[in-house]
Transposase IS4-like domain-containing protein (candidate division MSBL1 archaeon SCGC-AAA259I09), 414 residues
Amino acid sequence: MCGGWKMSGGWTANQIGFNSEEVILTSPDPIRGLDEPTRKTFGKQKYRFDGRKERERYKLCWSARSVIYPELVLKQNHNAEYEPTDLFGVPTHAAFTNDFVNNAAETYPLPEDETPHPNTVFYRVEKLSVGEILDQFNSAMERIIEVARDKGALEGELDLAIDLTDWRYYGDGDDPMVLRVKPKKGTTKAFVLATVYAIVDGQRFTLKAIPVSSLSDKDEILGDLLDYAKNIVDIGTLYVDRGFFTVDCIKAIKERGVKFLMPATKNDRVKREMEKGNPRVVDFEYGVHRKNPVNFNLGIVENDDEEVKTFATNHEVNEDELEKLFDMYSLRWGIETSYRVKHQFRPKTRTKKYEPRIFLFLFSVCLYNLWVLVNFQVMKRFGEDSEIYMTAKTFTDKMIEALPQPEPPPTDHN
């Protein structure tokens, strides 16, 4: 298995289309090369960098693109005109320009005769089953996690967040995997992913995503995500929204010994507790009419706008700590910048077929993770205030520049 940050040895120039007599390439290390000249000529390709910042950004982005590509395999004949890595450039460009895949093929920064037609991309993807697509992206996510752990991004106790992410759909509501959701953007239909995130330096780093169908049980999906996450990180507190405030979901969390915090739905019994005043902590039994109810601490607290909020948690908390509990949820769950940014990495498509849609959906999750990981490396190496740090917009711009280019020349350390 190979990726831009873990390769050993080198790639020959023939492997990327140059004459082998010119030079042998080695994989770049994204945190080395600070003494590299600002201009270097390789064959007919000139690399021009405006100082260290641009040089390091380019190298990081070039390395980032090579992490997931090797894990994604498309079915094709041995004499196919394009390799899978060539085809992935088009949806990557669509993601980074937040454009439709068809449009991205027209604006792709390579000559027209070297750019795959979008129909070719979809044709290859549609030959994969949903199971094959999920297996490949599980492998790609594991590869990103491997790199993240190697770089120290998942060390120590980390808080988790689990939520449901939707991709709005305007086709037939009876199409496969389409769910009915709350009205938004002119539709009540969507494809949905359940996703578990580790909160890394204020950003949500995705550990796993599971497609949700009309037959999915929320507590089983929650349990699957937690089981996977427990093998990857040491869990601090799990943050979920009130959509998981059910007896079965809370049981699934408690059975795994995970600390959690979530808003409590204001049903009749919760409202009666609210009427008794605040701040208060109540040992609350939920599901009293069921054979096996579940217990948790119900926190009742008033925020700065004099709104009474209710939380469910298995943290031991005193009444004088409830405001801190409220702030904790707001700070951790409220990292909505990450949620909004994630949509900037999603290619658009008009296709109604599920296979290419779930492929692009998961592809965008991987690209978002790479952005988080690249900036983690920047902060670790150069500090939190480094000028090399990239916003989502800067990252997309630099990735577009690096996308069609060959590997940058190795650093001369002699």
